[in-house]
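quick one, two chains, predict together pls
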Amino acid sequence: MNYKTTHPALIFEGIYKLIFLLVIPLVRGFVATLDGGLYRWLRGAWADVAVLFVILTVAVLRWWLTRYAFDGKNIAFRGGLFLYTDRRIPIERLTSVNFEAPWYYRPFSAVRVRFDTLAKTGRHADISLVLSKSEVQRILSALFSEKENPPKAYSPKLKNVVIISAFVSNSLVGAGLVLAFFARVGAVLEKDLLGNFKQILTLDSRRIVTAVAIIIALGWVTAFCINLVRYTRLTLSRDEDTLVIRGGAVTHRTVLVRVDSIDFINMQQGLFTRILGLYTVFCHSAGVGKKRGDLTALTPAGNGVELDRKFKMLFPEFERSKITLKPPKKSLLRFVADPLWLLAPTLIVAIIADKLNLEVVSTLAFFVSIPAVWWLLVRVADLITSGIGENEASLTLRYSTLFKLNTVIIPRKKIVAVKFRQSPFQRLDKRYDIFVYSKGERPHRHRIRNVDGKTAKKLLRMRKDG
Amino acid sequence: MITKAVQIIPIIWCLRGDTVQRISKKSVLLWRIRLSVVTVAVSATAFLLLPQKLATFVFAIVTAAFCFFFFFYFPRKYKNAAFFLENGLICIKGGVIYKVKRYIAPENVQYITFFATPLERLMEIYSARILASGATGQIPCLDKEGRKALLRLVRREYEL
């Protein structure tokens, strides 16, 4: 194989990794300033130059020693400054390839490329390189032969992009709740009786509370704007075995995902989006969504009909099945027990604190009870909709995790383990909590509460007569 | 029948010898060099920073540990370390106090990473990390023949 150096832009990443060394000249400058001596700072300037020289030399050496090769069948990587590594990955083992062109790389025609497999490498890609655009085109055309007008392609409308951005930017509801909490605490502190310090404390407290509230609001707006920019120009297309996800206005991103490496598809809703009939679809595969900024949400849909249409187009292998095994409605307590454990004590504390005129405590307890009530409502919705459906090739699972309602489609071959758990109370009516573990770089657990064990074994094809 | 058994046994041993791959003999030297460096560093630090009696005590402990690792632990570690194919699975065995055998299916292997510190590169030995889906295995100190044998086991032979 013919090994080549990567794009020189990799030197910038090397410099960035060693930026912490700049603390030496900074501290030296600070000490010199305190001592009151420009002459003293100048006398030691050689140390600053030496640090900068080390940073630059190490970065350049790291780039020079890093080599890669791609021959259409394998991607290989060699290099390392102190620890030399050599790895070669066959193309058929790749599950996803991420191409990222940030705005600061585009003038140099540099693209960051990450190759991922099912090997457990945590948050790091199996191979990560910075390559030229022409080299990226060569790799892309070897991995994916793109037609000019692919038959299966989807680009969400702007309003749907706004929905995706709001959904992934940490709940709008949660941010609103925190804001309301701080506003209320500020008002309470103003009335609080603290003797001699009342005026000073309440004055500063109001400012602090206002500042915190503004920071939280700005934080949510910033996250929303970043996600909006990230999901602009989102396009999904399919050929026989590859899903291509493109998007990003500032950083251009392209992700190739091998369809048979997708571990499961999750159509997620919150309580609000459930009422509005909106879904956000996530696909789980090794390498997808590893880094902050990756495109993880695929598509929102207006309603079930639209979702089915898009699904059949993009994921024909993942057929949604009707839920046939559901928990009985009388198992309400099983579903709401966890949020009640949180809600009951907080409400009791809120009531007692209110009677004792401890406004800050009662305010805190009241605001903690709100997410507990939300969680309770989600669990009630979960009771109504959760269960297991199946067809020849896959299972459809509906369940909730905290504040999210999930509809998950897992191919049968991606299921690695199933656990049946039964509490003493469940023994009375032969119900179980079913835990389905799906294959992947990071193991995923899907939990369906309180269903009939025999029927579940049949659906999961765990009985001879199933 | 006894004659046949006598004829078959050497063949079986030869086959076993062919498939069982040991790590490089240089591994013992490498580990001893590292041990010596650490021992000298710890002893020097003790004598520089601690009162004399305490430093002597620390030195005695360090020397005892040095002798244990130098004469017993590393030679046994080398002797026990090996990898081979068993019932279609790659078996990596090793350990001194705890004996470990790890099995990985070759079809689950995603790729192998060979890595080496500057000293290991000087000695031309590389450690291997086998990355499979859901598991990893590590084999220290392989020479070129050892690496080729490992690549043969996972059916991924290429020029090293």
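Chain B touches chain A through 20 residues (CB under 8 Å).
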